Amino acid sequence: MNQPLLSVKDLKTHFPVKKKLFNKGSHSIRAVDGISFHVNKGETLGIVGESGCGKSTMGRSILRLIEPTEGSIVFEGREVTTLDQTNLRKLRSKMQIVFQDPYASLNPKMTVGAILGEALSTHQLGQSAKERKKKVENLLLKVGLSHTHIGRYPHEFSGGQRQRIGIARAIAVNPSLIIADEPVSALDVSVQAQVLNLFQDLKETLGLTYIFIAHDLSVVKHVSDRIGVMYLGKIVELSDKRQLFQKPLHPYTQALMSAVPSLDPDIKKNRIILTGDVPSASNPPTGCSFHTRCRFKKNVCESVAPREIEVSSGRFVNCHMYDNEYKRDFN
Amino acid sequence: MTSELLKIENFQISFKDDEAGTISAVKDLSFHINEGETVGLVGESGCGKSVTALSIMRLIEKNASFTEGKTVFEGEDINLFSEKEMQSIRGNKISMIFQEPMTSLNPVHKIGKQIGEVLHLHGFANKTNSIEKTIEILKKVGIPRAESIVNDYPHQLSGGMRQRVMIAMAMACNPKLLIADEPTTALDVTIQAQILDLMNILQEEYNTAILLITHDLGVISEMADRVIVMYYGQIVEQADVRTLFKQPKHPYTIGLLNSVPNIDSENESRLTPIDGNVPNLGVIKSGCPFRARCQHAHAKCHEENPPLFKHESQYVRCWLYDEQGGIV
């Protein structure tokens, strides 16, 4: 059996909150609170969830841009969490990230050539300046820009073009995994489609693997093979895309899907309106963290945190409704 | 027969820019909204949809010039109104909600005071009963613990709650027309569903007409009765919602619909995006502004900007529909 490219086990990232003068006892925001999944080579794993669910923190924790608190991350057979800085830097040429905001993630004082050239020289790719320039020109072509753009600054580009530069920087170092964190949500729809197609093309030509993080369910559905749904620092459902959309199991997934407006004016969805807001990650509800908004809530949900249940091969859901031990409570 | 509530005639809005001179943001814009109707205004950033909304309320910035156009509301041209008369309409007969509720609520005043002020200003409450009335309105928009929320400041509320407060404020005086400028763009999708649901309920109860401005085609399809598509400061297509989504005519509308991944479709082929980017305002001086991104562009598109052609119940600004319909 093939080993997965990346496997994450029980990943936790907690942010300590400063103690107040009389407030004893440590307190932390559990942004990522026990996440396990794997990504196979060549696939796209979509991660979807609403703001504050911890999806971006998770993406950054895998790269150790934010240090995870607990858990293990195995990439290409090596444990990432224990690597020292030198080895970590080497590893980062294999794992790259594309950020949401192309305005904020490109240095405004550097030309495109310098931005991409820096990525190359940091990872000792290209012997001479001349060779690097050639590589940069090639990269620009790959992402649908032209070699004439090499001397320009980020502000001279549109949002879509800037995101192409961000992608070029990520693929510059020949990574095998790219974590794309909301890469199209700042773009207009017509440009968003261009960038989504670029991701698809690069995946095929360069044999890339993606973790695609987004809040937009339609976008995640379009790009992913498998999808993980996050809520308050946990993956509540993880499944093959087709199965997930045919029959969402977790009550949160069901509500999330029903909330997406349809493009067909004739389809009137049976909407499941969730009451209330997402609870705070610094003080998550006891038991199942979704119980405060769940329409199937039973007593057990308030006290016992649900286990991960494998309902069918590769299909996981964190909900007591599917747990043999508690199933009868829900009838 | 439904009656016409608002009629925009021939809006021309331009901005003065030190470098580029005068930039035209909205050109030849005319449309109407009937009582109780929801009209969706859709387009990408920079197409002029927000400027249109602000100029209906006469809230555009000082460097903008509103050179021409009529805003006929309930039979009267409100562009001729004095500032004082305008103030009695704003927040009363026409009210508005914005994308980012945090920037449109005053951070240093309590929620109760801010809503109470609207009621007080338009004579719906006096000093003694304004808090009571405010609580009543907050309950109507589904805010739990309304009695204690009136004493909260905006930063103490979540994004969805803030938008509910904005809606409460906008609906406080039972307006005839609600202009909603990207009301759910900053919200998560489950909260968006709550807010859209609320807008529908309130509209039914008060027969309020809604001008819904958004870039989200899904929201438009769900909410609107009629849709106006804008590009580069102009209406490029106008149709009832079913026709627009089932038989779009303008190449831009077709391109937009093909660009969005459809969550209800099993078809997972590649998206067909529109080539290129939205041009900067003021760059295109003549011809059809969409021609550079259009697959059907021909000689005429370079020479002359097409007028709006009527095609059955649909209006399309494209030379492709020249012979089939007459010029409006």
Automatic annotation (TrEMBL), chain A:
CDD domains registered for this protein in UniProt: ABC_NikE_OppD_transporters (cd03257)
InterPro entries: AAA+_ATPase (IPR003593), ABC_transp_ATP-bind (IPR050319), ABC_transporter-like_ATP-bd (IPR003439), ABC_transporter-like_CS (IPR017871), Oligopep_ABC_C (IPR013563), P-loop_NTPase (IPR027417)
Highest taxon in the source lineage: Bacteria
Signal peptide location: none
Keywords of the record: ATP-binding, Nucleotide-binding, Transport
A GO molecular-function annotation: ATP binding
This protein's record includes keyword Signal: no
Ranges where the ABC transporter domain occurs: 6-257
Annotated GO biological process: peptide transport; transmembrane transport
Family as reported in the entry's similarity comment: Belongs to the ABC transporter superfamily.
Protein name: Peptide/nickel transport system ATP-binding protein/oligopeptide transport system ATP-binding protein
TrEMBL record, chain B:
Keyword check for Nucleotide-binding: yes
Segment forming the signal sequence: none
Gene Ontology CC: plasma membrane
Keywords of this entry: ATP-binding, Cell membrane, Membrane, Nucleotide-binding, Transport
Any one Gene Ontology molecular-function term assigned to this protein's record: ATP binding
Pfam family, one: oligo_HPY
Record's bilayer topology term: Peripheral membrane protein
Biological process according to GO: peptide transport
Keyword Transferase: no
Domain of life: Bacteria
Gene3D superfamilies: P-loop containing nucleotide triphosphate hydrolases
Protein family: Belongs to the ABC transporter superfamily.
This protein's name: Peptide/nickel transport system ATP-binding protein
